[in-house]
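Hi W.,

Here's what went into the run:
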Amino acid sequence: MIKVEYYLIISTLMFFIGIFGFITRKNMIAILISLELVLNAVEINFAAFNRYLYPHQLEGMFFTLFGIAITAAESAVALAIIINAYRSIGNININNMNKMKN
Amino acid sequence: MEYSLFILVAPFFLFLVLGLLGMKMKPKVAGIIGTIGMGLCAICAYTVAYQYFFQTGKVGEVWQQIIPLNFEWLRFTENLHIDLGILLDPISVMMLVVITTVSLMVHIYSLGYMHGETGFQRYYALLSLFSFSMLGLVVATNIFQMYIFWELVGVSSYSLIGFYYTKPSAVSASKKAFIVTRFADLGFLIGILILSYYTKTFDFGTLTANHAELVTTSLAGGTFMGLSLATWALTLIFMGGAGKSAMFPLHIWLPDAMEGPTPVSALIHAATMVVAGVFLVARLFPVYFFAAPDVLELIAYVGTFTALFAAVIAITQTDIKRVLAFSTISQIAYMMVALGVSDYGGHDGLGYMASMFHLFTHAFFKALLFLGAGSVIHAVHSNEMSQMGNLRKYMPITNITFAIACLAIAGIPPFSGFFSKDEILAAAFHNHPLIFWTLWAVAGLTAFYMWRLYYCIFWNTPKGDLAAEHSADSNSLQGVGGHHHTPHESPWTMAAPLIILAVFSVFSGLIPFADFISSDNRPFHAHIDWVVASLSIGVGVIGIAIATVLYLKKSDKPAEIAQSLGVFYKAALHKFYLDEVWMWVTQTVIFKYICMPIAWFDRHIIDAAMNGLAWTTQKSADSVKGLQSGQVQFYAWVFVAGSILIAVLVLFT
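Here's what came out:
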């Protein structure tokens, strides 16, 4: 049986790669993808801990399923925002998305 | 007599209706509503007067103070409370008649005079407000109610003087009137506070009862800066009266107040509001007489000086309304003097009666003079005497009524002014020779300047030019220099009030006033003192005669006399530079040495503290506002770094 630490190493790596991408990428679609990485890292954690701590219960698994559904919805919304942003300012560079400041 | 409340409620209701709904009405409708309302009010006042004077007022040879209504409005302490109510006694009932009559005449007159003016409805609304406040003032049961209405009168006067609010001169005149009277009212208020602090009452009845015993006992012994408290309180109260009644040196607002529409001048600045000060002193007369006779003396001398001073200025003025304004100041000063020289009780209280009598007759003939002047101005479109002359053919009604009023004010029998002026002179005759002779001279001056005014308006034919005058009818412009069209008689709405007031001016002197009004409310018999009467008639006739010689025909004589008087004439023409003196006092003394340091303190200390606070806030905000870059990724970076920091802290401490 695979040790839980390996899952955690994978998910930690994914989480910080996601964070790094979220902070450094300028393309909004790339940022969205980074965000997906972060969320998936969390879902891996849910599944892994559920499997190792409470093997006869399914709450963690359900949470993972919920998480996937929510991620999908969030992606749809984010893409819609990106499309509208593109329509209004002509590009999808995150640095140009500072109109709300003023 | 509870229905006397209607006299107050009606004008107030009219004010609300015309003020709020006036713009939805046609001007004429608003005017007629106002006039009819005022008419009802006048009828009610006459009924009250009839009932008071002939049915219920006198109980066993003493005129009673009837209080049909009184309710407590504000209670401060056990004893001190402000009431609102109606007090009917001989002087307040007399004032009700005067005010409603003159106000009604002015309402009717204004239908013609103000025809086509913008703000016609506003004008009538304000007239109603003024009538309400003036009527409230005279029926006040206590000194504080009087003060409230006193200020209301000031406000409505302010808005009526500034009626033509697009004219800068009218606006500054209204401000001047308001500030000067308000300044005087400060004295009035302090006087009221001193008086009521010691006597624990505002009520006129309580204050004046038993020879003002309450005031004399409760203020006894107190002194301040060498003068007794009663003197201080009553001098300050008189200061309020002097402000409203335009006594020297607070008279400066009244000539400027002539910027208002002429009917307003007739109502407010001749017949009613300006006598409020006289009325105030008369109302508190027992208090003055028993508690502070020295203040009465002061009033007498201030009045005498004002009468002379204003009469001298009136001679030199060329604006007809200003002549009338100074004549008003002079005549009101007469009333003040009469109160000042009066004793208490019986025939000794002649001055008190004479003052009220003169107030009564003066209201009618001065209103008539102003309305007549308005009629002339309406025809000529100018206030300057030099633009007039020879108008008697064009305006017969105005001519005759104006002449009657001039005879009345000059004190020629049997016109009303003769009787009242004679009583005043008689009151001063025995005990105050200086005052008497000054007033006597003023009577001559009065006759002179009034007839100067009359001749300049209606006669003043160019010398030896009678032929041209006759042909003036056909080619219309000759001899009436400067008219753009032929002057014409005013419409009946303006002529009718003139005629009615002329009738009052002729006959109101025949009323046996001493039977109704006296200082101790007991009727006495006043008879004409023929020595005084002949002196006053004599000086009046001389005044008229000189005016006739100088002004009946156009000549250079007046100019020559003016020339020979030199500096004195110039000083009088410039109203003895009193305006300039006040200007100097306010601008140089008060502004420079009081206001400027205060302004400096405000700007450099108080404002500086506030500005410093704002500056600090702004600077600190400047230094941190760079953090709010609007860059989402920067926020995310800070958030992550913070989370990691917290995580590290939690894990390793």
